[in-house]
């Protein structure tokens, strides 16, 4: 396939960015989207031009690093798929593809298509952990957990922190990500020690980072590559109301 790419180029977070048009030729439909970008960068290097910076790591749909906005959709046109698992057969010969970074104040652009998602790390540091005794690893079946509870906790734990929920939300809200991390631990017996302080601290940090409020449109869940449910936001809201009514952790 021969394609026209309109790619966001920006030297750093303080520089002005712009869309730059490139042509790529002889792209195999079996290539992944990131492999197609690799071909573009090889062409640019051969021409003595700066390659396009973009985030990637595992390229297996696990790490959540491949955060690209493709033709106006987070991770591209295929539902339930990360950018690295999106294949070029989803496009047609002669297509024009617009590629942009995540757009959110809390995710400043590092360079080109690479953004700084360390705000998510700071939210996790604020409360996304459990208290455990040091020593050897405990047996996995030491604490009996009902299968339905374990399944719900696992579904929340599948969040890969890619930030697609933030990019898809008109308010740049991080509620789906934060609620998944809170729900995962609130449902399990290991997470009960910090249950109240966790939800208060993580939501406070989320607000501090500058993420927007949730208005229940549901675009976050629609674009989530691993299918995190909006039910987690409802659970987080209940956790927060309960914590604020019974805890003096935060004003």
From TrEMBL:
GO molecular function: 2 iron, 2 sulfur cluster binding; electron transfer activity
2Fe-2S ferredoxin-type domain sequence ranges: 18-103
PROSITE patterns assigned to the protein according to its UniProt record, in alphabetical order: 2FE2S_FER_1, 2FE2S_FER_2, 4FE4S_FER_2
Domain 4Fe-4S ferredoxin-type: residue ranges: 146-180
GO BP annotations listed: aerobic respiration; respiratory electron transport chain
Pfam assignment, any one: Fer4_8
Named cofactor requirement(s): [3Fe-4S] cluster; [2Fe-2S] cluster
Family to which this protein belongs: Belongs to the succinate dehydrogenase/fumarate reductase iron-sulfur protein family.
Entry protein name: Succinate dehydrogenase/fumarate reductase iron-sulfur subunit
Organism of derivation: Hymenobacter crusticola
Organism lineage string: Bacteria, Pseudomonadati, Bacteroidota, Cytophagia, Cytophagales
């Amino acid at each position: 396939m021969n394609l026209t790419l309109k790619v966001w180029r920006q030297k750093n977070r303080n520089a002005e960015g712009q869309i730059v048009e490139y042509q790529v030729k002889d792209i195999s439909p079996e290539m992944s989207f990131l492999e197609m970008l690799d071909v573009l960068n090889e062409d640019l290097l051969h021409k003595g031009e700066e390659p396009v910076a973009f985030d990637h790591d595992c390229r297996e749909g696990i790490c959540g690093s491949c955060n690209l906005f493709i033709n106006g959709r987070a991770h591209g046109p295929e539902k339930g798929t990360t950018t690295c698992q999106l294949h070029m057969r989803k496009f047609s010969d002669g297509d024009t593809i617009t590629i942009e970074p995540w757009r959110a104040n809390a995710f400043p652009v590092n360079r080109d298509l690479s953004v700084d998602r360390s705000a998510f790390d700071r939210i996790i540091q604020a409360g996304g952990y459990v208290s455990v005794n040091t020593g050897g690893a405990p047996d996995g079946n030491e604490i009996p957990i009902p299968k339905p509870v374990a399944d719900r906790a696992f579904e929340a734990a599948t969040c890969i922190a890619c930030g697609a929920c933030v990019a898809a939300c008109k308010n740049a809200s991080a509620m789906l990500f934060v609620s998944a991390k809170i729900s995962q631990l609130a449902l399990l017996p290991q997470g009960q020690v910090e249950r109240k302080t966790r939800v208060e601290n993580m939501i406070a940090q989320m607000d501090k980072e500058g993420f927007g409020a949730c208005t229940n449109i549901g675009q976050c869940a629609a674009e989530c590559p691993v299918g995190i449910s909006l039910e987690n936001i409802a659970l987080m809201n209940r956790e927060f109301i309960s914590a604020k009514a019974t805890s003096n952790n935060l004003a």
